[in-house]
Design goal:
The chain is α/β, with parallel strands linked by helices and 445 residues long. It folds into 2 domains: 3-189, Rossmann fold, CATH 3.40.50.10860; 208-364, 3-Layer(aba) Sandwich (Rossmann fold), CATH 3.40.50.720. It is 48% helix and 16% strand. It contains 18 helices and 12 strands. It has helices spanning 3-15, 20-30, 34-39, 41-45, 48-52, 101-118, 138-152, 171-185, 206-223, 241-252, 275-284, 290-295, 326-334, 350-358, 366-369, 372-385, 392-416, 423-441, and strands at residues 57-66, 72-83, 89-95, 124-129, 161-164, 233-237, 256-262, 265-268, 300-303, 314-317, 339-341, 362-364. It is globular and about 60 Å long. The site of NADPH dihydro-nicotinamide-adenine-dinucleotide phosphate has 24 residues, from helix 10.
């Protein structure tokens, strides 16, 4: 790393002790930015990096709620409003027991660059709670969401901060959150949340957007080597919102997706995952992957283990951070891998990324490859602002153009800075320069 940037990085790490995922995300971005500071000394003079690493505002709050037996629980809620140079803070809410400030900050930091790459007018933020939704009834989820919003509502708004979903937060949770916001504020402010239901201000394609976008990004990478998804053997991790729609899109382009996972294990289905069955089990019944083996002849379930032991030519990590380490990367490479696109945020460890890059694998980092979700959230905001709703075809066309645009901008930026084919460098520099220019133009903020 450039020594000028290393000094800033060390200060950031010392000021934020114990936040290891945030440290990882900052380090990974800084490793790309040396050449930018050679060309733009004004970024150093303006202390852009120091400012960028300090969130504009961080909110931590108590979320008390009662379970169905009347017992009181207390969780912790977070919203980190990281950077508003390009627009209102925008980013999802994650409900998972592992959530703490270090995870919210890594996600918020990544979101700044991702949102800049979309070309849409959105700043970066993220939030969530250490609440564990697993096994909770709809009524418990509703009471938790209502309590969460009872504090959050005062911090958000169409022109301020616009949350959406992430792990553990989908259409059901956004509905309960929106209802409570409307009740407290007495405003039907559609643009305050995205990922809403279609009949009450949501956008077609938003549920599919992250997974579809990841596959579109991967397809553009494959094209640079004269290849396509047709005939590829694909391995996916996760079996939630992003994974399911990535599987569907990859198969619609002629690939066979042979495996996917959840936190308990993975399934292998050599005939290609039956997306309708997977969606029924995971999205409708909220069940486990073991059910898939029971209902699909020829499929097998492996408890524990790693889905990355399954061979494939394309890997799409769509579960969570640091789920794919250096050993898993080496195994995938030795099994014939040609491309990786990250549907999840930071799923590959830094050593995994090195393994892929040294082996010449096409590697699309999450902040570029999974930007289709938040980009379509911005399309939902556009529809809300104009009180319009677009067709599926039109919205999907916009998503495709945005993803192709992100791919091309990353490729061009990487080449411009002497690292052709390096999408990590392209995404980090492309996102950073846009935000840095806006921050300098807006004075010392
Ligand atoms: P979901 O809650 O719908 O699904 C998450 C999936 O990942 C589940 O299969 C879950 O398994 C698995 N998973 C979660 N945590 C872990 C863990 N610690 N170890 C192993 N598996 C785990 O979330 P999404 O599909 O929305 O999100 C997946 C990833 O995509 C996240 O990294 C998210 O930040 C990212 N993302 C999401 C976007 C969106 O629009 N939703 C947009 C851009 C990125 P289990 O059910 O067993 O917990
Ligand atoms: O990580 C992400 O980009 C998301 N969870 C989606 C954020 C959004 O505002 O749609």
């Amino acid at each position: 790393m450039d020594s000028r940037l290393e000094a800033v990085r060390d200060t950031v790490l010392a000021r934020n002790p114990g936040e290891k995922e945030f440290h990882q995300a900052v380090t990974e971005v800084f490793e790309s930015l040396g050449p930018v500071h050679d060309r733009h000394p004004e970024f150093l003079e303006g202390a852009v990096l120091e400012r960028l690493c300090e969130p504009e505002r961080q909110i931590i709050f108590r979320v008390p709620w009662t379970d169905d037996a009347g017992r009181v629980h207390v969780n912790r809620g977070f919203r980190v409003e990281f950077n508003s140079a390009l627009g209102p803070y925008k980013g999802g809410l994650r409900f998972h027991p592992s959530v703490y400030l270090g995870i919210v900050k890594f996600l918020g930091f990544e979101q700044i660059f991702k949102n800049a790459l979309t070309g849409m007018p959105i700043g970066g933020g993220k939030g969530g709670s250490d609440f564990d939704p697993r096994g909770r009834s709809d009524a418990e989820i509703m009471r938790f969401c209502q309590s969460f919003m009872t504090e959050l509502y005062r911090h958000i708004g169409e022109y301020t901060d616009v949350p959406a979903g992430d792990i553990g937060v989908g259409g059901r949770e956004i509905g309960y959150l929106f209802g409570q916001y409307k009740r407290i504020t007495n405003r039907y402010e559609s643009g305050v949340l995205t990922g809403k239901g279609i009949s009450w201000g949501g956008s077609l394609v938003r549920p599919e957007a992250t997974g579809y976008g990841t596959v579109i990004f991967a397809q553009e990478m494959l094209k640079t080597r004269g290849q396509s998804f047709d005939g590829q053997r694909v391995v996916v991790s996760g079996s939630g919102n992003v994974a399911i729609h990535a599987i569907a899109k990859a198969q619609s382009l002629g690939a066979t997706v042979v495996a996917c996972s959840d936190s308990a294990g993975y399934i292998v289905d050599e005939a290609g995952i039956d997306v309708a069955l997977l969606s029924q089990i995971k999205e409708v019944e909220r069940g486990r992957l073991t059910e898939y083996e029971a209902r699909r002849p020829g499929a097998s379930h492996v408890s524990g283990g790693s889905v990355w032991d399954v061979s494939g030519t394309v890997a799409l990590p769509c579960a969570t951070q640091n789920e794919l380490d250096g050993d898993a990367a080496a195994k995938l490479v030795s099994n014939g891998l040609i491309a990786v696109a990250e549907g999840a945020n930071m799923p590959s460890t830094r050593s995994a990324v090195s393994v892929f890059q040294e082996a010449g694998i096409l590697f699309g980092p999450g902040k570029a490859a999974n930007a289709g979700g938040v980009a379509t959230s911005a399309l939902e905001m556009q529809q809300n602002a104009s009180r319009d709703s677009w067709s599926f075809e039109h919205t999907e066309q916009r998503l495709t153009e945005i993803m192709v645009g992100i791919h091309d901008r990353c490729a061009e930026t990487a080449a411009e800075y002497g690292a052709p084919g390096n999408y990590v460098v392209g995404a980090n520099i492309g996102g950073f320069v846009k935000v840095a220019d806006a921050m300098l133009a807006q004075g010392l903020i």
